[in-house]
Task: inverse folding
């Protein structure tokens, strides 16, 4: 696992700030005028931290993530990623993993993973080598030649994660990546993600609807209100790492999950 | 049924039809003046294929089909993509195109003769017109088949507009585009044939129309076999390309 060691060597310093969001608001143009979607979001994500955002459907979580990725412009406020604004997508700083794995069906797994490198025009040997290494990191060695329709839901999402990691961006944004998976696969994938995160020490912003998933994965959970989305609670998850499935049965875990649930339930 | 059985049944059916085509007219069950026996038709086809007049007609028709195709497919596809890519243009053109699409194009044939005469340009113009419409409509459907998710993924990895076109649009649209090319060729061939049969001085369609009018049934059926074989051959070539894309087609 040489490549993992290499990635780990480049771990960002913990005191560094990866993402800084200040006074961010967003209003959509609707047929009856503006629809407020996000309101006064302020957050700071330390480098190498695992932040989970939860909130009711339609609260603007995905919009927030799109803005962090430079895929959508906000109405007001600032976003900086490692000190610089991100007006356009910058795959060197931010990798995005979408809800549906969104693999290209006309490419094999390994071709999907190396897609970001092929956009940059990297030499074929080089990108094939890195792509294979990424597939190994996500536990899919030997599956590179398969097409997406020949992979299970969990495997597709692993390929998608490998694709997000291949340019080695310090930040990984994940928009409900495991929402379409069955419960068992979802638990396994959460555990796998923590393993990969531990090996690469990315800064992760992860959106989910699952409270269990939130508590299991996060260093800190941000709870958002219904539209217009505001951050109504910030819950540090003090459970030790590495996290284990047994922790889910503990009192602490239950109380943390309950606290999030209380916050979301209050939303009218 | 196994695959072999199905293929055997198909070949048997084909042999039966061809056999009846030979036997029934030879024994006067069907009037051989109306339907000449298959053997006579095939030997006539062989004779025709040796005649310079027929060579010239085949060359003319082939060139008309080819030129019309080369004009219609890129023009139709480009217009379709441009219209489908702009919500504004789609809102304006889509209903109009649907109305015009429903009109049988052959009613415009006299108009084409007035403008282009009855020579090569008229055949090409008419066939390209009928084909271009089909390609345009299909290209619009092909653009709609491109998934917004895939574009978003490409953008998030810093793809330029050109890269989104070549890396996302083209492969996403390829299955529909290949089918379009196949169907376009059917329309294109039909367009040229109708134009040649309606008013022309040369071409296979012109010969067939003449044989029909003069009750030369052997020649007529020989022409039909020739055209049918050509059309099927082209169709199958494109279909084999389509099959290669169908593994990932959803």
Result:
């Amino acid at each position: 696992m040489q490549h993992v060691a290499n990635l780990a060597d480049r771990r960002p310093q913990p005191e560094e700030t990866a993402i800084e969001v200040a006074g961010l608001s967003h209003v959509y143009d609707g047929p009856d005028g503006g629809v407020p979607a996000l309101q006064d979001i302020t957050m700071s994500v330390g480098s190498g931290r695992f932040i989970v955002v939860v909130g009711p459907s339609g609260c603007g979580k995905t919009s927030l993530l799109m803005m962090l990725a430079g895929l959508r412009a906000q109405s007001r406020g600032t976003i900086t990623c490692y000190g610089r604004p991100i007006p356009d997508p910058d795959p060197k700083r931010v990798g995005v993993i979408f809800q549906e794995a969104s693999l290209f069906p006309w490419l094999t797994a390994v071709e999907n993973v190396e897609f970001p490198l092929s956009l940059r025009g990297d030499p074929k040997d080089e990108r094939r080598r890195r792509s294979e290494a990424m597939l190994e990191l996500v536990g899919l060695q030997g599956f590179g030649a398969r097409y997406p329709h020949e992979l299970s839901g969990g495997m597709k999402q692993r390929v998608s994660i490998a694709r997000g990691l291949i340019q080695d961006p310090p930040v990984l944004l994940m928009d409900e990546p495991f929402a379409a998976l069955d419960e068992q696969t979802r638990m396994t994938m959460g555990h796998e993600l923590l393993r990969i995160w531990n090996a690469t020490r990315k800064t992760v912003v992860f959106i989910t609807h699952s409270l269990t998933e939130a508590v299991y994965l996060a260093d800190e959970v941000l709870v958002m209100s219904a539209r217009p989305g505001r951050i109504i609670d910030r819950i540090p998850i003090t459970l030790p790492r590495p996290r284990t499935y047994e922790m889910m049965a503990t009192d602490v875990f239950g109380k943390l999950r309950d606290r999030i649930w209380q916050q979301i339930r209050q939303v009218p | 049924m196994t695959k072999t059985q199905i293929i055997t049944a198909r070949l048997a059916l084909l042999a039966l039809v061809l056999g009846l085509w030979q036997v029934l007219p030879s024994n006067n069950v069907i009037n051989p003046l109306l339907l000449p026996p298959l053997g006579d038709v095939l030997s006539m086809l062989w004779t025709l294929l040796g005649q310079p007049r027929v060579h010239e007609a085949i060359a003319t028709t082939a060139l008309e089909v080819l030129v019309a195709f080369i004009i219609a497919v890129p023009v139709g596809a480009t217009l379709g993509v441009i219209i489908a890519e702009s919500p504004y243009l789609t809102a304006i053109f889509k209903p109009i195109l649907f109305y015009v699409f429903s009109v049988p194009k052959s009613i415009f044939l006299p108009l084409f003769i007035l403008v282009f005469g009855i020579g090569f340009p008229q055949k090409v113009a008419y066939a390209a017109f009928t084909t271009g419409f089909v390609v345009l409509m299909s290209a619009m459907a092909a653009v709609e088949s491109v998934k917004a998710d895939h574009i978003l993924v490409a953008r998030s990895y810093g793809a330029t507009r050109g890269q989104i076109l070549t890396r996302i649009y083209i492969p996403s649209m390829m299955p529909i585009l290949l089918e379009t090319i196949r169907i376009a060729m059917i329309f294109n061939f039909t367009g040229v044939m109708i134009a040649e049969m309606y008013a022309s001085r040369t071409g296979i369609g012109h010969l067939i129309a003449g044989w029909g009018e003069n009750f030369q049934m052997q020649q007529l059926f020989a022409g039909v076999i020739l055209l049918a074989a050509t059309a099927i051959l082209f169709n199958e070539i494109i279909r084999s390309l389509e099959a290669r894309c169908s593994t990932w087609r959803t």
About this structure: The mean pLDDT of chain B is 90.
